[in-house]
Amino acid sequence: MEQERLLIEAAQKDPGHFAELYDANFERIYAFIVRRVQDRHEAEDLTAEVFHHALANISRFEWRGVPFAVWLFRIAANAIADRRRRTRQTVDPRLAEDLDQSSWRDIERRATLFQLVNNLPEDQRSVLVKRFVEQKNVSEIAREFGRSEGAIKQLQFRALKNLKARVGGRHE
Amino acid sequence: MSRKPLFDQLDGAIAALLAGSGAVPASVDASIEEMLRIALDLRELPAPEFKASLKTDLERKAQMSAKPVVFRPGFRTVTPYLHPQGPEFLDFLKNVFGAEETERTVMGPDRFHAELRIGDSMVMLGVGSGRTMPVVLELYVPNVDEVYKRAIDAGCRELQPVLDAHWEDGLRLGCVEDPTGDHWVIATHRSGSNYIPEGRSSLTASFVVKGAARLVEFMRQAFDASEVQRHEWPDGFYAAMKIGDSVVGVSEASNHEWMRPMPAMIYLYVPDCDAVYQRALRAGATSISPPADQNYGDRTGGVIDAWGNMWYMATPL
To answer: What is the pLDDT of residues A22-59, one digit of tens each?
Structure first.
């Protein structure tokens, strides 16, 4: 928490340091938003909106010992609600409520998983990105990588096995 | 299925998940069940390119706000540009709003460019330009009641008598139309330590347009604007958009007298006017004049957007 407070103060003095707060919170905010909107493009638009808003208003943030992510979640909840109002969709009143412990744990679990993907060996990480983000099938990935389908399936297997080991039984 | 190699079983189950099945199939080998639960969550994995490009955008914006261009004293990123018919308008600004003239450049008979400071902000005037372009301006003053009365006494037309805003705590405001047709939303903020709310300056240019949501998007794309405040009502909204160190207002036009469409002209100081000019064109604006070095010490280019607002972006030479 102390380290986070220092990061916030640094970003308030020099917005150039905001990137460190972004790196520390990107996966959390994306995980929060994508689960609620269920659409990748909308999740990206809203995530961008949240961080641009946070950067523009960082000088107004007051440290009260609460994680910085809580402020970002509130911005995200408001952004989702605003967008739904604009598109005449029903606004879930729970959006504006503070996260309960199980929601918080769920976000942390998925955000940690997304970060762990970045730490995988490059070939394993690339296969997961092609498969899950770009939604390509194994034969398409095999053609792109110039490898056999079997090799791609094994890379995918090793990637998930690695993630399972690194998540350490927290993925339930 | 259990006789297939585990990596084949895993891929088959992942294919089913990606095709829309939201659950781990019951028939898979127990040793890969946990991996499939992870795969379920990976369907929401963010695109690495998105994460990287958003970070680049934020760093560019942070750099702009951290290292503002050194303008002439008192100038912020955004300066409204007004077009009064005659020099008497300067007296009006001085007498009613306490404006101080800082610059006057004669352009021809009965034509001159003037710059005035009002509070902590600047306004530019093209006096006698022949252009008629009344604008909406928001002005924070220490005592709205006093300034509103001076404006009415100086010949302004009442649009909205002073009242306490129900949509924002501590905000008291009134609205008048000056002899040129400009609308002044005069306000005092009374809930904080300063009559100017945090993040604002004395003077804010404001756009009233039909299709305000699209203008907001245009400003995001062209000028890296970000929304810092929004008030909504059943058929419209007001958004405060931050550009550099300044805020501009955007409102949806309506049939209300002081909400009719009123485009504005803006003088925008940016670190690289050529780059911003190109971004504005890519965002859909039309060129008025490509960037060129001007004899008054700025490199300046101009565009007009789809709502008739004119944006002159400038970088000091």
So the answer is: 999 999 999 999 999 989 999 999 999 999 999 988 88
The pLDDT mean for chain B works out to 87
Residue B118 C-alpha from the chain's centroid? 20
Give the pair of three-digit tokens for residue B208. Answer: 């009233």
Cβ contact A160–B37 (<8 Å) = no
| The pLDDT of residue B1 | 45
Contacts of A34 in chain B (CB under 8 A): 44, 46
Q: How far, in Å, CA of A142 to CA of A149, rounded? A: 5
Secondary structure element (H or E) that encloses residue A19, with its range = helix A18-37
What does the pLDDT look like over B263-299, one tens digit per residue? 889 999 988 888 889 999 999 999 999 999 888 888 8
CB contact under 8 A, B66 and A15: yes
Quote the CA–CA distance of B56 and B131 in Å, as a whole number: 40
DSSP type of residue B200: -
Quick check: B35 and A160 in contact, CB under 8 A? Answer: yes
Residues of B with CB below 8 A from A105's CB?
Answer: none
The verdict on a CB contact (< 8 Å) between B46 and A26 is yes
Interface mutation target, options B6, B58, B243, B245, chain A, most CBs of A under 10 Å: B58
pLDDT digits (tens, 9 = 90+) for B129-175: 888 888 899 999 999 999 999 999 999 999 889 898 887 778 899 99
**Number of residues in chain A:** 172
d(CA B46, CA A133): 7
Q: Assign residue B194 a region: left if phi > 0, alpha if psi is -120 to 50, beta otherwise?
A: beta
Q: Closest chain B residue to A78 measured between Cα atoms? A: B230
